[in-house]
Write a structure and sequence with these properties.
binds nicotinamide-adenine-dinucleotide; alpha/beta; globular; 15% strand
Length: 245
């Protein structure tokens, strides 16, 4: 192997430049810490600042609403380098997403946010043969009457991941996604506290627990590293066996 070749057995992410949307949320912050702890430079972006000061000199915060195309483009113009783009921003509004206005807002964040970010940062990622990691959901695989917009958007994120993987391959950019299972964060509090809903989830879930977001981070590190150089266009469920059951 020549000295410039990528080692397909390397999980190293040190020196990589990483942008995480929804970065002050539960999963986004777990990812930010995992990457920064391993030597990456992480831009944590969100519509709300971090609850606590960022504990790494390699982490910095940028206010960013992924619905705002001009703001996404402005951040892309400001950032010189990017190796890893992780679109983690998200929200849901149980029972209200049947209203068209609410439906549109949810899809705007999860799906169109993805499109805006990918378009704005494609040149950066091309320059460094980087990658995109999208965030799906169990609802990428099946519907849910409480959150129809969220489920539709997450299913579309799976399709978009495949399409971008095909389109961006010519630039040396890989595009993959993670489908988290039942993770203990702000967005899932309503479900965790709803006794009937929680019982339904637990009846099907082999791991029988809501999991901390750090249990997703190893998969993000893998997808961002050379160890996954041949992995492209897939959504990996990290779900304690839920999809399998
Ligand atoms: N927690 C789970 O069980 C679970 C399961 C499957 C998928 N997910 C997905 O994981 C991702 C992260 O969610 P989480 O669990 O960390 O929830 P979270 O609520 O802790 O974090 C979501 C973050 O997104 C930010 N955000 C919302 N709207 C935004 C916007 N317009 N622009 C930028 N940021 C915005 C919020 O401020 C918040 O910090 C989401 O896409 C969510 O759908 C979570």
């Amino acid at each position: 192997m020549d000295s410039n070749a990528v080692d397909p057995l390397s999980f190293d992410v040190s020196g990589k430049h990483v942008l995480i949307t929804g970065g002050t949320g539960g999963i986004g912050m777990a990812f930010a810490q995992a990457f920064a702890d391993r030597g990456s430079h992480v831009v944590v972006s969100d519509i709300k600042p971090p609850a606590e000061p960022l504990r790494h000199e390699r982490m910095r915060f940028e206010m960013l609403d992924v619905r705002d195309e001009a703001a996404v483009n402005a951040l892309a113009a400001k950032m010189e380098k990017l190796d890893v783009l992780i679109h983690c921003a998200g929200t849901l509004v149980p029972f209200k997403e049947h209203q068209p206005g609410v439906f549109e807002k949810i899809v705007d964040i999860h799906l169109f946010g993805n499109v805006r970010l990918a378009a704005a940062f494609r040149p950066h990622l091309k320059e460094r043969r980087g990658c995109i990691i999208n965030i799906g959901s169990m609802y990428s695989y099946f519907g849910n009457g409480r959150v129809p917009a969220y489920a539709a958007a997450k299913t579309a994120v799976m399709s978009l991941t495949k399409s971008l993987a095909i389109a961006y391959a010519e630039d040396g950019i890989r595009v993959n996604a993670i489908a988290p299972g039942w993770i203990d964060t702000e967005i899932s509090k309503g479900g965790q506290n709803d006794e009937a809903f929680n019982a339904t989830v637990m009846a099907r879930l082999p791991s029988k627990r809501w999991s901390p977001p750090v249990e997703l981070a190893g998969t993000a590190l893998f997808l961002a590293s050379a160890a996954s150089s041949l992995v492209n266009g897939v959504m990996i469920p990290v779900d304690g066996g839920y999809v399998a059951s």
